[in-house]
Give the backbone structure.
Amino acid sequence: MLPLLPLLLRLTVTVACLVAGGAFGFDLQGHRGARGLAPENTLAAFSVALALGVTTLETDLAVTKDGILVIAHDPALNPDIVRDGDGRWLAVPGPPIHTLTLAELRRYDIGRIDPASRYAKQFPLQKAADGERFTTLLEVFALARASGKPVRFNLETKIRPTHPDETVDPATFARLVVEAVRAAGLARQVAVQSFDWRTLREAKRLAPEIDTVCLTSESESFDTVQRAGTSASPWLAGFDLRAHGGSLPRLVKAAGCATWSPNWRNVTPELAAEARALGILLVPWTVNDRSDMARLIDLRVDGLITDYPDRLRKVLAEKGVTID
């Protein structure tokens, strides 16, 4: 039997480690910064998210022609949010980002949504910030560091297995992300997420210390799981759902992801319980309605990704859930 004092010391260390590991409680992730309140994926949006006290900045990555990681959701310039040097909205989708240098990309203004677009009607509370330009990943890291807030980063590699010419290849994409994160000394504060699990597999091979997040979607318009298919989905990097009894949580576990982020509409009480039993963090995307937030919190999810961090903070407070 261990002497009493050493045993107490061991218990104290164990408790301290558990507390340290859970320094953040619920993970409040600001989607594209805070898309509902400021122009998406801009320094303005990230500043709003930081001011609202998010625990994680969720964002998207693209790679320019000169190999620089920039923040962008769409592989090509989106007419709904992009204006040219003369202030005119693009009439059609612009060139792919990977065909433009950073200097060329900076010529475009992304500080507001085209008010005539259907997209603008989705975000009536978004406050324009004219003059905002495409920003780099390193600039987002610098903004967060200057804020003094202990924020984390959830970085999505925007790449599609069905459109290989849109972006750099998965191995190059993953390598650039890993190099940037390591150079910034942020490996423990960053997670790499993707619907295209090829980049996750490569990132985990290059940097086991960086967490990965398996994104999934099962809807009519966007289905990365493809349960009805006769072969493994091309989005899942060779992992076959059928080999895991049709269980997405088990598939995510096999893929080595610490976190599973499904479309919030796909989350059921049974799936939430299964993920919890497997030790996988569950952080659904993108939840904007208060009642949906409340339902998912009641399912004991580990976090939520939202365009409205202010709204989610209020729901969490009403339920007595701590985020920091």
Notes: Strands lie at 27-31, 56-63, 69-71, 152-157, 190-194, 211-216, 259-262, 281-282, 303-306. The domain at 24-73+136-318 is CATH 3.20.20.190 (TIM Barrel). The first strand starts at residue 27 and ends at 31. The mean pLDDT is 93.
